[in-house]
Amino acid sequence: MKNKRMLSGIGAVVGLVLYFVSNEPQTVYAMHIMEGFLPVKWALFWWAVFLPFFLLGLRSLTKLTKERPETKLLLGLVGAFAFVLSALKIPSVTGSSSHPTGTGLGAALFGPLVMTVLGTLVLLFQALLLAHGGLTTLGANAFSMAVVGPVVAYFVYRAMDRSTGKPRLAIFTAAALADMTTYLVTSIQLALAFPAASGGIAASFMKFAGIFAVTQVPLAISEGLLTVLVWNFLVTYNGRELAQLQSIKRGV
């Protein structure tokens, strides 16, 4: 029965994917750094930084699915959730766009390394199917959204859950901060690649970060609230599985 409910939840998420893809607003470029936008040296640099995390994530994911094969449906759900949210393009300013990331939920449930793999697959499919992001810039996009964002979400969730005993508040904060951190890192990446003629990297960072702050702050709050709703659904229909995952992460 629980598997049927989980499958229906995944079906609903997939339906949302199809809806938002077909009704996606057109913009000049998305916050995922687009194909060919980064200089070659920076594209290679971020690939080199990202790959070790991805390889560690593959090992962690393989171990998880072997030891707990019943988590595969839940993994599919959090992956689909990240795909839906990060596929949305919300018009920002100067011809750009912002979007949620959806990585906080998976990071809180499975840890940052597993979410690194899922987030990277999300970015890869978006680059190939939606022209959202790119292959040469996949390393940079994955480092910001699939590495740093999940790491922040995981440790914020654990710290707040232990200190406050309020998991919903913890998951809200973790999801919102994962979103904001992703965009701060992306702004740093762009600033490093394109320092301003006057003011250098710092001035360039303020420019890029300011562009997305207008839409990203309310988006982060909205993502946190939506993640709490999904969390409530999982607690209602998959409470035992969630409790087991939490026990594993605490070393019980």
Automatic annotation (TrEMBL):
Mode of membrane association: Multi-pass membrane protein
GO cellular component term of the entry, any: ATP-binding cassette (ABC) transporter complex
UniProt GO BP: cobalamin biosynthetic process
Q: Which InterPro entries match?
A: CbiM, CbiM/NikMN
**Where's it mainly located?**
membrane
What pathway does the annotation place this protein in? Answer: Cofactor biosynthesis; adenosylcobalamin biosynthesis
Know the name of this protein? Cobalt transport protein CbiM
Origin species: Aneurinibacillus danicus
